[in-house]
Inverse folding.
């Protein structure tokens, strides 16, 4: 790959998960010049992590379950001629139509005619006593670690929180030899039952459901259950859960705990895209309120792979000025969006989870701000100014959604850089940098 | 491709499976990634480059999210506190 510090694409896609891959493939198939950027070291996003790249290690290859959809899209993207730039993270928009990105070795400027944001989602974390101990991780977080080589064979893992991800993670960990003493789902049996019944309208998801059920046979699944506290000196030793009204202590090696997902809207906000109730607003062709910027997948609503692929395809076609071809997908998208609404409703958080924190429980992990210090403040902004909550390197990505649930605070606008960046990178914005631009590595053409 | 590679964590050589991230290496050897501002030991949480709890110095570059960097033979990893 060339070492130019500036690259132009007709269509630039940010995010290499299902939505981004579908957008990039469909756009590139129309004959325009497409780049797809992801900050991980390979494409696939979180859901297809380690399953979509032929270059994965033997370790991964032997452990990967057959995911034909992931490899189909990876093949299609490769054949489309789109340029993949992995290990590259967008940190700033110095001028409209220009994005500044950096990797381990340096930085570059990316310019575009149309931009597709497919920035995905992250897990929602809720604070409880002991959640900062080593080996307490997100549910998707632990799965990602195992996919990246963490041995889990013979380890005891309590899976807790809420959302369909818990079952998928438990199933994955079990296939890799973990013992799962219990899956704790905070939602009630009643709402889960409703969810299950409604799933009959989505045949493909029912098949997934049966597979999960088979994988998870003999694993206790407890609804109305959630973690109360994690215990250990430095590293996790056990977890106390509230299991259908009774407290129970369970010794374990890992706690995999996440409370469904929140859209990553920091970059869309930075670019000026309108966001409502945490989701990026888009029109029929996935265009945001900024005409040159489109958005697809989880940032528009948490709807899973199926919706992400449909929205990604529509966005890709629209960005390549072939929006008329995308109309055949509108019906499918509408159906998948109804499923997204159902997810939101089924896995909404119960109010008991608001009182898990003790006064000294840390809520903002970057700056070690405790629950009692936050409780004194009336707004996110006030807590930032007075207690430094959300002022650390994660920029409120972890504590923001938590305080939104705990105190009903609304994290306000974002400021550049949207991720912590190196001084050399930011110096480029001012035009004063005389530093050597390093080659942008990790890409595949 | 060798099945195991060696990286150095705070001067100590560590064998890790090839294809592992630096965060995995840190958990494998029970190494704390960082010490928080109030002195708590911290390790990986999100596994996807969001939370910054797994940050370490890699090859002299500080504040690298270890969950997003693959181990390479001879890589020098140091914790920053």
């Amino acid at each position: 790959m060339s070492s130019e510090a500036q690259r132009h694409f007709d269509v630039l896609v940010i995010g290499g998960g299902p939505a981004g891959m579908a957008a990039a493939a469909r756009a590139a198939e129309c004959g325009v010049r497409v780049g797809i950027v992801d900050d991980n070291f390979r494409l696939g996003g979180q859901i297809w992590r380690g399953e979509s790249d032929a270059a994965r290690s033997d370790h991964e290859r032997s452990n990967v379950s057959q995911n034909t959809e992931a490899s189909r899209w990876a093949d299609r993207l490769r054949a489309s001629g789109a340029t993949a730039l992995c290990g590259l993270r967008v940190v700033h928009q110095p001028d409209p139509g220009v994005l500044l990105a950096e990797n381990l070795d340096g930085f570059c400027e990316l310019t575009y005619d149309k931009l597709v944001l497919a920035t995905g989602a992250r897990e929602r974390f809720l604070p409880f006593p002991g959640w900062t101990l080593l080996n307490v991780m997100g549910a998707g977080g632990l799965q990602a670690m195992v996919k990246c080589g963490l041995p889990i064979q013979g380890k005891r893992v309590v899976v807790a929180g809420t959302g369909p991800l818990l079952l998928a993670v438990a199933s994955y960990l079990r296939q890799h030899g973990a013992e799962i003493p219990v899956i704790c789902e905070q939602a009630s049996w009643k709402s889960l039952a409703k969810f299950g019944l409604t799933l009959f309208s989505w045949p493909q998801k029912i098949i997934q459901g049966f597979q999960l059920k088979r994988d998870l046979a003999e694993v206790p699944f407890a609804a109305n259950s959630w973690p109360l506290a994690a215990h250990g000196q430095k590293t996790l030793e056990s977890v106390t859960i509230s299991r259908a009204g009774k407290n129970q202590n369970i010794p374990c090696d890992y706690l995999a705990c996440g409370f469904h997902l929140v859209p990553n809207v920091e970059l869309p906000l930075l670019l000026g895209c309108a966001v409502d109730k945490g989701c990026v607003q888009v029109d029929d062709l996935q265009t945001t309120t900024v005409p040159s910027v489109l958005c697809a997948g989880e940032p528009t609503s948490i709807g899973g792979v199926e919706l992400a692929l449909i929205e990604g395809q529509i966005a890709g076609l629209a960005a390549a000025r072939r929006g008329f071809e995308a109309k055949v997908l509108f019906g499918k998208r509408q159906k998948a969006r109804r499923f997204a609404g159902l997810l939101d409703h089924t896995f909404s958080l119960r109010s008991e989870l608001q009182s898990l924190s003790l006064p000294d429980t840390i809520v903002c992990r970057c700056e070690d701000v405790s629950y009692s210090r936050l409780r004194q403040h009336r707004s996110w902004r006030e807590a930032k100014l007075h207690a430094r909550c959300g002022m650390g390197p994660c920029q409120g990505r972890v504590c923001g959604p938590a305080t939104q649930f705990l105190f009903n605070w609304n994290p306000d606008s974002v400021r550049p850089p949207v991720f912590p960046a190196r001084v050399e990178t930011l110096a480029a914005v001012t035009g004063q940098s005389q530093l050597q631009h390093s080659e942008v590595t990790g890409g595949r053409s | 491709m060798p099945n195991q590679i060696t990286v150095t964590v705070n001067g100590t050589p560590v064998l890790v499976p090839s294809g592992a991230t630096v965060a995995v290496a840190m958990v494998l050897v029970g190494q704390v990634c960082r010490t928080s501002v109030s002195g708590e030991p911290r390790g990986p949480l999100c596994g996807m480059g969001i939370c910054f709890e797994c940050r370490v110095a890699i090859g002299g570059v500080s504040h690298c999210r270890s969950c997003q960097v693959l181990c390479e033979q001879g890589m020098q990893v140091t914790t920053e506190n």
Helices of chain B lie at 22-28. The beta strands of chain B are 4-9, 12-17, 34-35, 41-42, 55-58, 61-65, 76-78. Chain B has one domain: 4-78. The mean pLDDT of chain B is 92.
